[in-house]
Amino acid sequence: MKDYYNKLSEDYDSLYIQNILEFQKRQLEINKEDNYYVDFYPSLGIKNSETTEFLVCGQAVNGWSSGFGLYEKIDQIKLLNSIKSSNKYLSEKNHTPIDWVNFQWSNSIYNDHCKEEIIRNFYDGTYRAYRSFFWNVTYKLICDYYNIDRRSFNWSKKLVWSNLYKIAPEDANPNWFERELQQPLSSELLKKEIEELNPRFCVVLTNLDWWLPFRERIQTKIIEYDNSLDEIVSLEYYFNTKIIVTNRPKVAKSDKFVEQILELIKK
Predict the structure, then answer these.
(1) What is the pLDDT of residues 160-196, one digit of tens each?
(2) What pLDDT was estimated at residue 1?
(3) 222 with 236: CB under 8 angstroms?
């Protein structure tokens, strides 16, 4: 198994570490408790030689296998661990880093598809993705766009997954203050993701409050759209990328979101 499937540029990596260092420094100035945070490096389902059509962004991860304590020394090893955490994959089976969503979708799928010891040992997490609004919209959107059978696992090869904020408390979203601490460099990181990957579409499954600081710092161009698409909160452009921002309800029909996103994509 290779260390990781794909990654972004060295410049991106440096900015990623800078974001953690500055967050850590500012937290220690006001908070002496040794809190633990998870950090998330984008997960690339596409290979280095392939064109990216979709960058799909959530808000922040609530739990991840890469993290740091506020008193931890951050160095190059930390960065490599972050890249591996998001981009590890089962190379023997030609999987992608996002295939964990497929294999850990539900107990029945896990039991059916992880009978081989090598697969079961690799996908040993207890999280089940079928509960996730984010993943329900994402896999259906990619499948429908590419006319892939929704039961297929091939959608995981067609996107890059990122989050607006790369640092979060373990098992929770970052609060307002934790978002403010990392907002400037979080915006720069997302900006670089768009510039480096050059996706046709960036789908942001969050809400307008979470997105507004990114819009202001990245300086996107706002585009008018059909306001009957009630789950869409903004349509914007930056670089060569159409950015579609949606609502983020606690309970919703994912198919409705997919239909409305596809309607904007096809125009």
Answers:
(1) 999 999 999 988 999 999 999 999 999 999 999 999 9
(2) 43
(3) yes
Q: So what's the architecture of 10-265 in CATH?
A: 3-Layer(aba) Sandwich (3.40)
Distance separating alpha carbons of residues 56 and 108, to the nearest angstrom: 26
Considering the chain, what percentage of its residues have pLDDT values greater than 70? 99
Query: pTM value?
Result: 0.96
Which one-letter DSSP state was computed for residue 38? E
Closest CA to 248 of 231, 229, 227: 231
Structure tokens at 111: 């039991």
Contact 246, 204 (CB under 8 A): yes
In whole angstroms, give the CA distance from residue 130 to residue 229.
25
* 1 close to 178: Cβ distance less than 8 angstroms: no
Separation of alpha carbons 156 and 6, rounded Å: 14
β-strand 167-169 against 241-246: which pairing, if any?
unpaired
Instruction: Give per-residue pLDDT as tens, 29-88.
Output: 987 778 899 999 999 999 998 999 999 999 999 899 999 999 999 998 999 999 999 999
The 10s digit of each residue's pLDDT in 238-260 is 999 999 999 988 777 999 999 99
Contacts of the segment 18-23: beta carbons below 8 A, 24+ positions apart: 18/185, 19/166, 19/167, 19/182, 19/185, 19/186, 19/189, 20/68, 20/74, 20/78, 20/166, 20/167, 21/74, 22/181, 22/182, 22/185, 23/167, 23/178, 23/181, 23/182
